[in-house]
Specification:
238 residues; 6 strands; 27% helix; alpha+beta
């Protein structure tokens, strides 16, 4: 089973963005390798070329998106060995010097293209589905690993409120934009949208606060039409 195309697109964009940061910090180069006239001001001290991180090191990267991707890829490859691509070595953005103003592209520079085999996103005519979809064996394996991370984040007790829940999940390297509070009264409940990071684009977790911690339930969320994760109807898998 191959890693999701949506994740491939995200990885490519992340690598491009961090590569741009590196070029910005080091200054642009002219065609002959000499610093161009638009290089960073002399007042800014450029740091040495940052050490490139890969593998386990990326799970401790300073960029939370990279950490989340690296963890998800490791889990996917554990559940289905050889199925996940390897996240390319990236610089730690904390080691890249900041510059004044946006990066300036010289005529000799070319934008980094996305992989040619990435499919186009669904058009506006795509039918939106709000029914839960089944998770296969690999999805279930990945779900168990991610659920263990969630439970470990609340090993000391249940979250007091939504802010505490979000803080604990962010500390466990779940992206804040992936956590969605569920509406309604009753127990505190949120869903973690892992569709961009799951083997089949369908994985989501529902986290419910209990008296002593949290309960974690995995379910399959459809991607057709990119429905809101809070609107997925549970208990409708075949």
């Amino acid at each position: 089973m191959t890693t999701s195309q949506r994740l491939l697109r995200t990885l490519a964009l992340t690598a491009t963005a961090l590569g741009t940061l590196t070029l910005t910090a080091c200054g642009t180069q002219g065609a002959a390798g000499r610093p161009a006239a638009t290089a960073a001001p002399a007042a800014v001290t450029a740091s040495p070329s940052p050490r490139m991180l890969s593998g386990k090191d990326l799970e401790r990267h300073s960029d939370p998106t990279v950490r989340a991707q690296a963890i998800a890829l490791r889990i996917a490859d554990t559940c289905s060995p050889g199925s996940a691509i390897e996240l390319p070595p990236l610089p730690d953005v904390s080691l890249v010097a900041e510059t004044v103003g946006p990066p300036v592209r010289t005529p000799s520079e070319e934008p980094v293209p996305l992989p040619p085999d990435l499919p186009e996103p669904p058009g506006p005519e795509a039918t939106v589905s709000y029914d839960e979809v089944p998770l296969d064996e690999v999805d279930r394996c990945a779900a168990d690993a991610h659920a263990d991370r969630v439970r470990a984040a609340f090993a000391t007790g249940a979250p007091a409120d939504e802010a505490a829940l979000r803080k604990a999940l962010a500390g466990a390297d779940f992206l804040p934009e992936s956590v969605h509070r569920m509406p309604g009264d009753g127990a505190l409940r949120a869903r973690i949208d892992l569709r961009d990071l799951s083997p089949n684009d369908n994985l989501a977790l529902e986290v419910t606060a209990t008296a002593t911690g949290v309960r974690v339930d995995a379910f399959g969320a459809p991607i057709a039409g990119d429905p809101d994760i809070t609107g997925i109807r549970r208990g409708r898998t075949s």
